[in-house]
């Protein structure tokens, strides 16, 4: 295999500084110096053959944090190891686990076949299949060396002590699962398999569970929000079942491996339902690190004339561009969409992140007969529109590949991964065609064999770059990566450092670039590096969410009857929720506990999914061949594979012909000059006000339960490459109702008038403030803007005043809105700062425009949003500020 030239990180830093000097794109460069490592000694109890195997793999001595964690686990204490990327957390887990498995096979132990069932077993849980596959490959290498050590020492083949490891997930064939049930000492899996297969079929996994000694929860910081609540309850069900099967045996020891995060002991305790005092936390990272450089990057300002002109040219060349589309709909300085048909100041019409469509209705006479360019003398023209972070990432990737670097590009969506890979391959095909095939996309929705091939090609060096979602963020150890490009703030500082840490692993130098997307939070952070480099956040999740807890109680009851002593494990103060489930017919109350009602159709485990409740994934099927191209989440099918949608898979473009309950039917297209984006409408109904703060001048700051009703009502076609809206198309998709949690605020109309806001300006001011607040909430909570939604209205039918809602996007809530409610002053101050400091005149994606607005970002009033935010801050009482 030909080896591409390798470029040291220092040269890449020089390259970034050179490129970034153009158009002032490089905002900040932070260098972290190299750090030496601190070694410890191998524990006395560690198996000598295992130590020899590690030595063969290059680990002569462990780091001190590895020793501390391994000692704690071996002593039977629940442990959380929270250290940096590439610090060797796996060794801390495998050293005690494998040593105990090997100790059970010593020649002086019971040699009867019945003793085989008493060998200790371990479960390894990974949040992603990619990480489990990576760990499996590393474990296989370790076991191979372990056996080689014994063979070279003269141990007969039949007497070798070894470890049987197996991966079990949704992709594992049934014969391999059968072998794992019968023979495996270590099972590598994920919480989904635990929930849907292992726990409901625990009778078939009896050998594994009765001997379960260790549970390793890798990358536990990834379990946040609704996923974190689900995984916490799955782990509690597992530990409860093992105690029930082995009432007099030792309790399984849990190791939670985490990136550097705040309050790791508390996070681990909440995951397994234990007291924080029972968790040993180890956070002193002793692994060496090479010099790391993080560049904060903001794409250059666009020339609005060039962007519009290129889009029209691209559309003219597209064979399938609709003839009825208006190429001047989005011309610079041209006609824009009104937020409300008729009077834009109508107090009855809400504007929301997923609100009703506002199709433009300009009269033909109002349009110029010929295209016109931007009016550079117009003082109201917005000079702040910037290039897409995805486009910038693709071009920067090409620059890095051209000097011999290997890189990962992290993006925020599946579609963006395809776009980055497609654009990079196209550019390389023109300049360096020998590199074009070394770039690929990696994302969810690929078939299992596609994912495995990509992972192997990356490890072997055939691929020099991958554009990926966060599927490759967690734990993947690929040596030789020089750079990481992060297109858009990844949601948390923990994720930022996890992604940046993919470069320069094993003590080598690494370079990472955070490219700001055109949204308020990204714009704020690249200009406030102190917030980027602040301490990592705590992980937020709520296992007590009744919408999450209730189906898990049903699942637990189906696995083994629930008893009074189980209530504290699930955080229940009494049996009222169980009584309610029994009243609804889900459970049966008996003298010995609560039982699942087996007369109901289906399994209790199928009442919920860990990745968010909703319909099953929808297969994407090619019309001409019947082949399954990929899958999309059932909950997002209406907005991503609706009829007329453009679907991209591995660089291939498809057009959705039909969406049914069974599948999305697509046809292959060779040239599509546009992309599509769904339009939604929504409304919010307040169900219950849980907390309320009465601020000055009649301002109310509240938190409670709401119902959000949403519906896809159409889609827009967006021209390439500028993504301007060129046509709008109606759809009629089903309505969806989401019961969730929300923070909201109301302000009297007379107060807004005193602040200088006229009635016609109020909808735009509220809408802009809502967008900016949604964009800034991830600064305070471990979420991103896709985990939350919002709605603003000049007259809400329940509050009867101007109202703005910011709600969780998961049933029952995920804790993010509540975090915003409790950090009101900090949230509002950061929001006001990003809007007021933005250099645009009327609002842009860096301050008040939203990439997921159902109203095409109309109406928006930046100046009005500033006035509203300042009004809110002035109304906060001193005691709230102190709290």
UniProtKB/TrEMBL annotation:
PROSITE patterns: HELICASE_ATP_BIND_1, HELICASE_CTER. The keyword ATP-binding applies. Gene3D superfamilies: P-loop containing nucleotide triphosphate hydrolases (3.40.50.300). Residues 330-386 are annotated as: Disordered. The keyword ATP-binding applies. Residues 356-365 have a biased composition (Pro residues). Keywords: ATP-binding, Helicase, Hydrolase, Nucleotide-binding. Transmembrane segments: none annotated. Residues 396-568 form the Helicase C-terminal domain. SMART domains: DEXDc, HELICc. Residues 70-279 form the Helicase ATP-binding domain. GO terms for molecular function: 3'-5' DNA helicase activity; ATP binding; nucleic acid binding. One of its GO terms (biological process) is interstrand cross-link repair. InterPro entries: DEAD/DEAH_box_helicase_dom, Helicase_ATP-bd, Helicase_C-like, Helicase_put_actinobac, HRQ1_WHD, MZB, P-loop_NTPase. PANTHER family: ATP-DEPENDENT HELICASE HRQ1. This is Dead/deah box helicase.
